[in-house]
Write a structure and sequence with these properties.
With 265 residues, this protein is α/β, with parallel strands linked by helices. It is built from 10 helices and 12 strands. β10 and β11 form a beta hairpin. The longest helix is centred in the last third of the chain and has 16 residues.
């Protein structure tokens, strides 16, 4: 990793289990490789499934804390710290950029596992400043896509737009058994719906995800893990297609599909 680039990518990464932070598997290796596909960004603005709130906020502290927002996992996962710096001036810029949407400058949140479990593989030295933008649970999908469009200009200033979640995410239907049946048809169908919409550059289909019918209802029982994709789609330029980066469905109901714009190989 060498010089900072003038234009940074927009990425949506399927993060899966928190234990990916401390594992070596095909996804974590892909995340490490992905970071070598573009120059180190000046900063990262993360939109995480795990900061799902009422209203919009952006972290605005010099040293965001590492949040262990989970339970029942091995102690080594709780021992992880990701000491990336923040950037208060960039937080203020984000607030101004998203006006007239009211954006509060938050000094209490930090970096949740949706963000640091990925970045610990992509930037293990934690040298890149990281901010998080919350997801307003009171707003419809189009609102989040439009916010992504307003964030486009940050990419030209070297700020990576970094959505993380899972396009298929139904914890109630996880198949824990080692000899579990094949991936359910509804999970494959919705994952394919998103993949094909990405391939076509059909952002309207991503916004209107319910058009996938019963598969959408099963795959997206709540919106927090899906909406980060819409920020990234919105942050892509009009003449820029999102590219499929990684794919796979784990435990029957967790999609690891990842897409991005601005990857130069």
């Amino acid at each position: 990793m060498t010089a900072h680039m003038a234009s940074a990518p927009a990425l949506f990464i399927g993060h899966g289990s928190p234990t990916n932070a401390i594992e070596d598997n095909r996804y974590t290796r892909a995340w490490r490789d992905l970071a070598h596909g573009f120059a180190v960004p000046r900063a990262i603005l993360a939109i995480s499934a795990h900061w799902y709130t009422q209203g919009t906020a952006v972290t605005a502290m010099a040293s965001p804390r590492t949040i262990h927002d989970f339970g029942g996992f091995p102690q080594p996962l709780f021992d992880v710290r990701y000491p990336a710096p923040g950037d208060v001036s960039l937080a203020q810029q984000v607030r101004d950029l998203l006006a007239p949407v009211a954006v509060s400058l938050d000094e209490s949140w930090g970096l949740d596992h949706g963000t640091w479990s990925l970045l610990i593989h992509m930037y293990p030295q934690a040298q890149v400043p990281v901010l998080q933008l919350s997801i307003d649970a009171t707003q419809p999908p189009l609102f989040h896509y439009e916010l992504g469009k307003r964030l486009r200009s940050l990419r030209q200033a070297g700020v990576m737009i970094f959505g993380n979640g899972n396009v298929v995410h139904n914890l109630r239907l996880i198949q824990w058994e080692a000899n579990a049946a094949a991936t359910p048809a509804w999970a494959t169908a919705f994952n394919d719906y998103v993949r094909e919409a990405v391939k076509r550059g059909d952002h309207a289909a991503l916004i209107d995800y319910k058009a996938a019918g019963d598969a959408a209802r099963m795959a997206v029982p709540s919106l927090e893990h899906y909406l980060p994709l819409l920020y990234v789609a919105g942050a892509a330029e009009d003449d820029e297609r999102l590219a499929e980066l990684i794919d796979g469905i784990e435990l029957g109901s967790i999609s690891m599909l990842s897409v991005g714009a601005g990857i130069r190989g």
